[in-house]
Amino acid sequence: MKTKINNNQTPTTFIILGVTGDLTQRKLVPALFNLYKEKMLPSKFRLVGFSRREWGDEEFREFLHSTIKKHILKTKSTDIESFLKHSKFQKGYFDDKNYYKQLDQTLKKIDIEVGVCTNKLFHLAVPPKMYEMIFKHLANSGLSRPCGGKLGWTRVLVEKPFGNDLKTAQALDNLLGKLYKEEQIFRIDHYLAKETLQNILAFRFSNVLFEKIWNKDYIEKIEIKLFEKKGIETRGDFYEATGALRDVGQNHVLQMLALACMDDPRELSAKAIRKARADILKDLEIINSKELKSRAERAQYKGYKNEKAVPKSSKTETYFKIHAHIKNKRWKHVPIILEAGKKMKKDLTEIKVHFKEKPTCVCELGDEQELQNVLTFHIQPMAGIEIRFWANKLGFGFQVEPRELSFDYPKTAIQDHLNDAYERVIFDCIRGDQTLFTSTEEVEASWRFITPILDNWHNTKLTTY
Ligand code: BG6
Questions:
Q1: What is the DSSP string of 207-238?
Q2: How far is the CA of 149 from the centre of ligand 1 (A)?
Q3: Which residue owns the Cα nearest ligand 1 atom 4?
């Protein structure tokens, strides 16, 4: 059961910039609708779509209706109808200040209709190259200013990738810092909002069992994988300019590393948890150009060059593997292997912690047997935790065999929750909890690690698979 939003009933207007895009259709509209249905949005909630389409409210509502029908299988028409009543459309071009003025007028009308100055939440569901322009227009047109007093906060939700490398991320952050306070900025990494990732923290810091041996003395290596069966689908343009390392490495994979390796934040506060994540990312050892060959691999799936909007000469990677190290006392010399790819044999996202071999045993060891324990966090599609340990083999003698202790979330429940990451993102943004959003320090630290790799990426051989 989800927690109900009874602590946040302040009237809120959710403005999606780029409302006809792929992200809005696949994730945002379904998430908003589900939250609405589950009464987890403030009752005085409004949705405003901003896009260059020649639409009025009616056409926008038809679009929302078909999007909901397409992405949520079981829905009651009455629920959809009542959700649609909360929506409004505002035509606009992102580069034209006049349309921001019109948006401002539309929002003012909504406030009059609702009877108070509503909170304003701007979600930038647009290509990252447009961020800067939109931020400036929002600020110049006064749209980023709260209504005043205690009423009506203003927040921005920003999608990844945040910047293209360290320099551009810093520049974007500088700009944002001038226009908004840090507590107004919500940088999304939807992996942080996945229940199975939150479970890593719950497991590590609520049990005494493992934390004492969670270090270089007992752990041989950690493997982090994000494998997807699907290819790049219709996102050729975006992917060609991005590549696997920027698309999921700089963010999702490094966030998995942060949760698996960070120190105990000791309290459930956004400040403490974000700091612990940032601290471990700051400790990542930079891989220089000489080491890159032996520590990184990149590859492209067969058929990638035939995808729509991908040039035949493309050298963009759809797969990478990196041997990372963390240069602090706890993790010195422990290999942390980061691996991700599209068009892999199966969907598999997991973190495997390999413990060191037990040097002695009270058993007769077989030739190939190595007494190692392995702990696996299954992120998706399986969702749970599994520990491989050694147990006595039935029968005369002193032989051991590997066994598993495991815990799985029920399949149906977790499917629901895995689909939920965006619901959680929106829910937490409305209630102002930044725990599951990346801080400026985390973004900077992850780019500091990734950028030197990208700088030398073209010298790293690109194989096919
Ligand atoms: C996105 C990437 O951030 O994450 C996609 O841009 C990737 O390329 C997706 O497919 C994976 O997310 P999920 O939640 O489907 O595992």
A1: -STTGGG-STTTEEEEEEEEE-SS--TT-HHH
A2: 39
A3: 248
Cis peptide before 161 (omega within 30 of 0): yes
What is the phi-psi region of residue 115: left when phi exceeds 0, alpha when psi lies from -120 to 50, beta otherwise?
left
Classify domain 192-464 at the CATH topology level. Dihydrodipicolinate Reductase; domain 2 (3.30.360)
**Helices and strands per DSSP (H, E), number in the chain:** 15, 16
> Residues with catalytic annotation?
252
Ligand 1 pocket (Cβ < 6 Å) reads 228, 247-248
Residue 140 CA to residue 231 CA, distance in Å, equals 40
- Give the predicted TM-score (pTM) of the model: 0.92
In this chain, the answer to whether the domains covering 12-159 and 192-464 adopt an identical fold is no
CA of 47 to the centre of ligand 1 (A): 25
The CATH number of the structural domain formed by 12-159 is 3.40.50.720
Q: Which atom of ligand 1 is nearest to the CA of 242?
A: 6
Digit-coded pLDDT (tens) for 245-282: 999 999 999 999 999 999 999 998 999 999 999 999 99
Q: Can you give the residue ranges of every domain in the chain? A: 12-159, 192-464
Nearest CA to ligand 1 atom 10: 228
